[in-house]
């Protein structure tokens, strides 16, 4: 089964002519399906698709990893280029009023930056589910990810507003995509807000596949403590991962540590990166 991943949007770009923007969007081609995982923050994914010669009208499904603007904000430009009806799979909580509380105490809205009705008018049909959704025989969304490790926590600056009051956001909408391949599991991450190790363990349990061949995407290690980094790296090594493509919210210091640990198995997943497995 040929599998290909093309990163359409990320914080950095691999070459001239491509736009870099905080966020992520990855085109997944597997099992005769084309799935767009997240859409970046604004128009970078749609623009880079043109530069890379990718026809977005061929996409079968769009999956949102969670309801933050840097993962959902590019949906409208993508829909305008697709010019057709498309199913958007996500957790119901993507529509929650999501905020970040900055160090100076300022509240910043970071949720989906457009009304649902506008996306639907452009062809989006939302399939909202807390449970895993099988897109093909070998491709499944994670659904809600249990938090089982003691050292992985949701970022404390993230909140959801309910009845005018800010409450810590448990990020139940944080999802990944799992692909069963001949070489083992391939895990595509959005931000891994609920923990990369929690996500990988959930992938094994959900799919019944123990071997983890590749992990690609945001790992949310940019603010991880030294202790959390050590524990995370030790666990990642125990999975026997052969390809590790970190990006977005991983952060450069954490990426450098992963690169040093995993050597040739590591790559930085910039916008424009195309991986065939």
Provide the residue-averaged pLDDT. Answer: 97
**Shape descriptor:** globular
Neighbour order of strands in the largest sheet: 8-5-4-3-2-1-17
List the total number of helices: 7
CATH-derived topology: Metallo-beta-lactamase, Chain A
* Tally of distinct domains: 1
- The helicity comes to 10-25%
Unreliable spans are none
**How much is the radius of gyration in Å?**
17 Å
SSE succession: EEEHEHHEEEHEEEEEEHEHEHEE
Query: CATH superfamily, called what?
Result: Ribonuclease Z/Hydroxyacylglutathione hydrolase-like
Structural class: alpha/beta
How far apart are the first and last residues' alpha carbons, in Å? 9 Å
CATH class: Alpha Beta
Residues in β-strands, percent: 25-35%
Polypeptide structure, described:
The chain is of the alpha/beta class and 277 residues long. It has a single domain (4-141, 150-276), classed as Metallo-beta-lactamase, Chain A (4-Layer Sandwich). It is 22% helix and 29% strand. The chain has seven helices and 17 strands. The strands form three sheets. A seven-stranded mixed β-sheet has the order 8-5-4-3-2-1-17. Strands 9-12-13-14-15-16 form a six-stranded mixed β-sheet, with helices on one face. Strand 13, helix 5 and strand 14 form a beta-alpha-beta unit. It is globular and about 45 Å long.
């Amino acid at each position: 089964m040929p599998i290909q991943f093309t990163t359409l949007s990320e914080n950095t770009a691999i070459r001239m002519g491509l736009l870099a923007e905080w966020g992520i969007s990855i085109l997944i081609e597997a099992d005769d399906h084309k799935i767009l995982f997240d859409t970046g923050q604004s128009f970078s994914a749609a623009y880079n698709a043109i530069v890379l010669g990718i026809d977005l009208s061929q996409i079968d499904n769009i999956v949102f990893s969670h309801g933050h603007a840097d993962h959902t904000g590019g949906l409208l430009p993508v829909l305008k280029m697709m010019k057709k009806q498309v199913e958007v799979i996500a957790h119901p909580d993507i529509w929650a009023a999501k905020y970040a509380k900055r160090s100076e105490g300022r509240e910043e809205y970071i949720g989906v930056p457009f009304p649902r009705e506008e996306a639907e008018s452009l062809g989006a049909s939302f399939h909202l589910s807390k449970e895993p959704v099988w897109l093909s025989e070998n491709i499944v969304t994670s659904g809600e990810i249990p938090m089982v490790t003691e050292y992985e926590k949701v970022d404390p600056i993230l909140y959801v507003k309910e009845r005018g009051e800010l409450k810590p956001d448990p990020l139940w909408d944080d999802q990944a995509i799992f692909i069963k391949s001949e070489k083992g599991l391939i895990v595509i991450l959005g931000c891994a807000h609920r923990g990369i190790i929690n996500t990988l363990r959930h992938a094994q349990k959900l799919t019944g596949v123990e071997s983890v061949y590749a992990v690609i995407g945001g790992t949310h290690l940019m603010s991880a403590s030294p202790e959390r980094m050590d524990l995370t790296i030790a666990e990642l090594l125990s999975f026997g991962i052969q390809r590790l493509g970190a990006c977005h919210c991983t952060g450069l210091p954490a990426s450098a540590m992963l690169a040093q640990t995993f050597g040739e198995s590591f790559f930085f997943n910039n916008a424009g990166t195309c991986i065939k497995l």
